[in-house]
Amino acid sequence: MAINGDFVSKTTLFLVGLIAFISFPAEAAVRKYQFDIQVKNVSRLCHAKPIVKVNGRFPGPTIYAREGDRVIVNVTNHAKYNMSIHWHGLKQYRNGWADGPAYITQCPIKTGNSYAYDFNVTGQRGTLWWHAHILWLRATVYGAIVIMPKQGMPYPFPKPNMEQLVVLGEWWHKDVEEIVKQGNNMGLPPNMSDAHTINGKPGPLFPCSEKHTFAMEVESGKTYLLRIINAALNDELFFAIAGHNMTVVEVDAVYTKPFVTQAILIAPGQTTNVLIQANQSPGRYFMAARPFMDAPIPVDNKTATGIFQYKGIPNTVLPTLPQLPASNDTDFALSYNKKLKSLNSANFPANVPLKVDRKLFYTVGFGKDSCPTCVNGTRILASLNNISFVMPKIGLLQAHYFNISGVFRTDFPDKPPKPFNYTGAPLTANLGTAHGTRLSKIAFNSTVELVLQDTNLLTVESHPFHLHGYNFFVVGTGIGNFDPVKDPAKYNLVDPVERNTVGVPTGGWTAIRFRADNPGVWFMHCHLELHTGWGLKMAFVVEDGKGADQSILPPPKDLPPC
C-alpha cells in the first residue's frame, strides 16, 4: 500500500498548475485546449484492456478557467467510436452548440474528424466536469473543470492552503460497450461494474492495486479544499475520510451555507467542494467511496479507497477505514440533502422564482416492451409521463434552429396521462408506454416549477436528474406522493440549494424552480446511464426572446455533419 510515485507527481502537477493559473492577469482570457481521443491499453485489477482516453490520460486533463474567460477545446477523434463531449454544468448561454450531448445539440464527431467547442464562462465559479455524451463512453472519457473566481474576489470561506481533485468513477473488467450491447440484446441490465475508483484507481482493497492507489500527502495544521466529482455511470456514492470531518462549502459550482459532516452523499453528475483540516494524529487514513442504494436493486457494493497521508509517516503504517453510512441508509441521505442550502449572501444571492408561470408534473417509471429475441421475451424501458424518449438521427438544436420538420414534436405533456397511486403497491402492468421524440416548449423568461415524482412501476428507485443549460433551485422534496395542496406550503423559497443535478428520492418527489432565460434545446435526463439508455429523458425547447441578446447564436461553421 505504498504511495504511488506516479500519482504523487500528478498531484504535484495539479498544485503547480493551479498556482501558475492563479497568477494569470486579471482580465478575461482565452484558454485553448486540444483533446485527442485515442484508444490505449490500461491495466487495473490484474487485467489490461483497451479504453478510450483523452490525451493518453485517465481520468482526462483538467480544464482551468476563470469566471469571465472564453474557453476553446478542439476535440480530434482518433477512436473507432463516434464522440461528443458535454461540459457538465456550464450554462452555455444562447450557445447550445457547445453543450455537447450527441443528437441533442450536435451530431457526434466521427472518427478522423475534429470539432472546436467554443464557450464563455459567465457568472459561474467552482467545480464542474466534462464527459463523453454518447453511448457509455463516459466510463473512461471524463475530467474536471476548475473555474476560479474573478481576480480579487475571495472564496466566501477560509482560504485553503492547498486544493485537490477527487474524481470518483467505476471500472469494468471487460469492454463497456460490448457489455452494454450484450445486455440490450438480452433485454436485461448489463453487468454491473467490477470496482469503483478514486482518480482512476480502485485502491488497495482490490487485487494488483498497490500501484493503483491514489494518495494525498498532507501537513499537520493545514486546510485542504477537496473538489469531489461523481463521474460514476450508475451509482450514488458515500464518501468519507477516516477520523476527519468535512465542511461542505459548495455543490455544482454554487456556494452553500457551510456545514460539518462525517460523510457526503454525491450522485452521478454532481460535484461537492469540502474543506478538511489535517488536525488529527499524524498517520495514514483511508478515504473511501461506496454506493448508496435504498431500493431492492443489485449494485456494485465494493469500496474504493485512497490514502490521506500525513507528511513524514512511513508507508508501513496501516491506514484506518472510515465509518461510512450503511449502503441503504435512507435517513442519512434525506438528512444530508436537507442540510444543503444556498449561501444567499449579498455577493451570491439566491434569486428563487416566487411567482410561477408554468407548472409541470413528471412521473418517473419503468416498463417492459415486447422483445421476442430477448431472454424473457421483454425489454426494460423507462419513461417520463409514460413517454420513453426516442433519440433522433440529427441534432434537435439543428432541427429547431433551421426549422427542419419531422424530427420532433412539441407536445410533451405537462402531467401524466393518467393519475394513479404513484408510490403504492408495485405495479407490474405496462401502462401503454408511448415512444417518441417529444419536447416541451417553454416561453422565454417564463418561470417554471417542475415536480419529479418517482413511481412504483416495476420498482421505486432514486434518480439523479440533470438539466442542461440551467441551474435550478431545489425548493422541496418528500417521500410518498406529492400533494399539490399541502406540500408547496413547506417549500423553502428563501435559501434552497441551487444546482444542476438533483436526486429524486426512492419512492418520493423533488420540486425544482428555474427561470427559462436561456434560449435553445436543452436535454433533461436521469444521470444513471442505464436509465438514460432505457429512455428516461426528454428535452425543453426554450423559445427566443425579443431582445437583441435573447436568441440562439448562429451555429459554428465546423459543426459536425450528420
UniProtKB/TrEMBL annotation:
Reactions this protein catalyses: 4 hydroquinone + O2 = 4 benzosemiquinone + 2 H2O
EC number from the UniProt entry: 1.10.3.2
Keyword Signal tagged: yes
InterPro entries, sorted: Cu-oxidase-like_N, Cu-oxidase_2nd, Cu-oxidase_C, Cu-oxidase_fam, Cu_oxidase_CS, Cu_oxidase_Cu_BS, Cupredoxin, CuRO_1_LCC
UniProt record, GO biological process: lignin catabolic process
Gene3D superfamilies per the UniProt record, alphabetical: Cupredoxins - blue copper proteins
GO CC list: apoplast
Protein's cellular compartments: Secreted, Extracellular space, Apoplast
Gene Ontology molecular function: copper ion binding; hydroquinone:oxygen oxidoreductase activity
Enzyme class at the top of the EC tree: oxidoreductase
Keywords of the record: Apoplast, Copper, Glycoprotein, Lignin degradation, Metal-binding, Oxidoreductase, Repeat, Secreted, Signal
Ranges of residues in domain Plastocyanin-like: 37-151, 165-312, 411-545
Family statement drawn from the similarity comment of this UniProt entry: Belongs to the multicopper oxidase family.
Protein name: Laccase
Taxonomic lineage of the native organism: Eukaryota, Viridiplantae, Streptophyta, Embryophyta, Tracheophyta
